[in-house]
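Final paragraph of the annual report: two paired records, presented back to back.
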Amino acid sequence: MEKISVIVPVYNSSKYLRKCIESILNQTYKNLEIILVNDGSMDESGIICDEYAAKDDRIIAIHQQNAGASVARNRGLDICTGNYIGFVDGDDWIAENMYEFLYTALLNYNADISICGYYIEDEKNGVYGARNDNGEVTVYDSREAIREVIKDEKIYSNFWDKLYRREMFRELRFRKGIILEDIATMYKIFMHAKKIVACNVPQYYYYQRKDSLLHIRNEALNWDQFWVYRERVLVLEKDYPEFRELLVTRLVSFGIAAYNCLLLKGDLSSDEKSQKEEILETVWKYGKEIRDKKYGGKGLRCRLKFVTQKGYDRVYPIAKRVWLSCGRGRR
């Protein structure tokens, strides 16, 4: 039985962490190396990590100053010894046969990455939804998987619903200092894979915390979205021309959203002013391509027409606040 390394970044997760760790310890697949990386938590998460490391010799507890989930995952990748690698977030939990399920699928299809479905859970509703739960099995080559992760419909950029051969991370690490490290990294992992198998049976329980960065809209998140989608275009445009329309339309859409967010903020720092100009320049550049080639739908082309009009910077914040005051929208 080959070893699977499970890397768990932990930050202020004491309320959920025991359930998370117990769900990994109780896996039907027993040959596990569990690496808990405490990312400078200010609650009792670090104590809980040490407690479990003392109980089970499969667990390694690492403590670091707060540097973000990407750095925590990279610490785990640097020391892990398994033939295969998985990730679980410290506030989530997994079904007892998840790694046996993913390992079996990976071997049966001779794949480099296997993917399962997942449940969505929160404090108010409990488990209230699922993604990829129709029981279907689909095998993708590298290009097909990249297309699906760009579309964000059948394959998602989550790290934690997958099992990877360790070779996938031989030259790759997660980018630090950004919020959307999953979107910035997953397509690059697929570029290194020859075969990916997706088995649409939920095995992972994704817990949505109210205080999660991904559920708090702010300028940093909007800038991250713009930045990672622009990088996708730059990385993929040469060797994957068939994805051009998908890449460009998503970049411009997120660029307009990030630009609007800065307009609503009003008083901008010098860095934010530079970001605003950089975003607008990119929207202008790729917007011309969208108009000329009629990429995307009419809605996007209409938004492009407005954002490039003289006076838009002054009119948009006023119109948006009027719209919100009338109770017509929240975005």
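The closing record of the year follows.
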Amino acid sequence: MTHTGVSFERRKANNRLQAPKPVPFFGVYIGAMKNQRIIYFDNAATTRVRGEVAGAVSRLMTEEYGNPSSLHTMGLRAEHIVNDAKSIIAGSLRAKESEIIFTSGGTESNNTALFGAVDAKKRYGRHILVGSTEHPSVLRAAEELERVGCTVIKIPCDAAGILRLDFIEQKLREDPEIILVSTMLVNNEVGSVQPVEDIAKVVKIHGKNALYHVDAVQAYGKMTIRPGKWGVDLMSVSGHKFHGPKGVGFLYIRDGVRIKPYICGGGQQKNMRSGTEDVFGIHGMALAAKIAVGNIDANYAKVKSLATKLDNGLKAFKNVEIHSKSYQKFPYILSVSFPGIRSEVLLHALDERGICVSSGSACAANDKHTSDTLKAMGLKPELIDSTIRFSFSDENEEEEVEYLLEVLGEIVPKLGEFIRY
């Protein structure tokens, strides 16, 4: 099956598609082991750090290494860098600087929101509502809260992965002991966009003692987010999802909302998150945020074109099912099943051709249980086991999608012929 009249080998003449030389790293050659270019369609797992971000972080590591808590000149300069980053992040959300707490990433932000909110509100009840399609850092935290005596109610979703607003409203009306509602903004496996603003309104009207937490890890930098305007109380973000460094993120805590600290120590960040601030990571995340937010519309248009091209190309295959019903609304994630071909088999076959994709959430790669999201959407086990996730960034190009379709056209019929359940 050929999806383009120009072979990928010929297109390699373009400098952008030249295979990079293997780079030695601690004695191990990383990437391009077979002298082939890596085509990266796993941006929902993580993104490449932008060159200007990496350069800025590298410079700070050797020039601005002071501790922000120190009172001397180097410490004050480091504190200024952190405060400047906080200003950039807050501005991107139309929030106050006082509402931003820096963390080590999405998992810590989610855990802090859940454990901190429940601890602060437990005198009103111990019941929480969480989406059935949430990230493991929310679902596993909810399980731990259940283990220590909380009642966890999971919000069902429809076949497109959209949570049922009527269920949330009904439970809040019936149960005054619900103290927290937690949902994603964008699902990390299929890209479903939740009606966060509508959910926030329902929580405020019917959840007398409830806080509303939103996991915006997949959404930030890709769509306009206004937690204050929407009525969100807590919101989690991670830097490495929008071309920033790994190991840094933030938690938005709306002014007036009180949660208990999750990490205790030296009292940094108003006692909400003790520990010396990661000045380098925070600066890198803020720079990446400034670039991403400043180019949201252009990046969205480019990625939507790529996702549409892939979707149209996949329709040429005899047996394929696309699970991302909202991709026209959020085109960065496209979840697809090739029935009869296990996802791990197809993933490794693509990897052999230099194409990186995922079989689901990278954060759950070491967890052997079935995808919570796909199961909640009602997919049959054979479809779940054959699901591949393609996720884009603005750094992907049209010819990469063409090459992906070319390779899929070669290997899918062969794998479908020899591999059955």
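The first strand starts at residue 23 and ends at 25. This concludes the annual technical report; the extension proposal builds directly on these records.
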